[in-house]
Amino acid sequence: MTETARNTLEIKQIEAFVAVASGRNFATAADHLRVSQSALTRRIQELERIFGVALFLRDAHSVRMTTAGGRLLPEAQRLIEAASRCHASVAIHQDDLKPLRIGSHPLNLVFQPTAMAQLRRLRPDVTIEITNLLPSEAVMGLESGTLDIAFIGAPMPRHRPELRQRTLCQMRLSAAVVQGHPIAHNTELPWCALDGQSLILPARKKFPLKRRWIEECLRRSRIRPRSISESVDSADPFTQIGDGKSVALVFDDLRQLRLPGVQFVLLNDPVHLMDFTVAWHRLVDDVLITQLVDVCKASGIETANAS
User: Fold this and answer.
1) Structural domain tally of the chain?
2) From 1, 108, 138, 273, which residue has the greatest number of CB atoms within 10 Å?
């Protein structure tokens, strides 16, 4: 076969040859390839012209392969398999073109802008999209497939085979109060100091994991609050403590916000440390997750072992 002939060889011609050789019937082969019999015949004729030999012997009742056709068949089958592998390889890596969708709460200071910038420098091949979501919304996004990665805070208690999670760091809570509150003169207090206080806790529907964890801490410490109210978002607690009587339980890193008139009192019982968790869909490259954790660590976040 000449170089010119080799350059005119097309995979659809090889597919036509294999389809006829496998079924020994032009009608069946045409149906299999979803083409007309005349189109199939043209492809076989083109292939015979390229090779300069007859590949089939036809009569009114049967189709038989020639000796040349018998030699071509195994090579043609290997060529089709190779074409399929090429297509599959490209299809797999089409996922590299999709943006990496990350869900994070807007006041989540664990996932800092510096970490985001470092990740983009480290992986310029990956387009990263950040969506501001509540933890409950982020979990739903992972389950529905609209998110790839989510910073969810408290770990998910139930195992979901399609999702993985890893502890980024362990965090303490602080009691946020106005400066005139009786506990405001302290920098640290044990959890038992919350007994008898009017507490503001994260809303059960919007922050289910965090709320469940705080309630368990209160139960283990045998704390009986005077009253409990809910904060509808991360900013709401600082509005509610304005009555001068309430104590809001918030992540200690929120003290970085330096809110005027607000005092943060660290709850220093080491037993009550909450794992701050990143979760991701199992199809996300684990190497990328490791890089994400590493850049968070480089931004000053102490990471923990995988869970």
Assistant:
1) 3
2) 138
CB atoms within 10 A of CB 129: 12
How far apart CA 92 and CA 103 sit, in angstroms, is: 24
Measure the CA–CA gap between 37 and 29, rounded to whole angstroms: 8
Q: Give dist(CA 240, CA 230) in Å, integer.
A: 9
> Using 50, 70 and 90 to split pLDDT, how confident is the model at 306?
very low
Task: Single out the residue in 74, 95, 116 at which a domain terminates.
Answer: 95
Contact 176, 263 (CB under 8 A): yes
141: which residues sit within 8 A by CB, 6+ positions away? 101, 103, 131, 133, 147, 150
Range(s) of the domain holding residue 281: 98-169+275-298
Are 114 and 89 in a shared domain? no
- 194-224 burial string, b = 16+ CB within 10 Å, else e? beebbbbbbbeebbbbbbebbeebbeebebe
**120/262 same-domain check:** no
- How many other C-beta atoms lie within 10 A of the C-beta of residue 89? 9
Q: Full-prediction pTM beyond 0.90?
A: no
Pairing of strands 246-251, 100-104: unpaired
User: Which of 80-84, 105-109, 133-137, 226-230 has the highest average model confidence (pLDDT)?
Assistant: 226-230
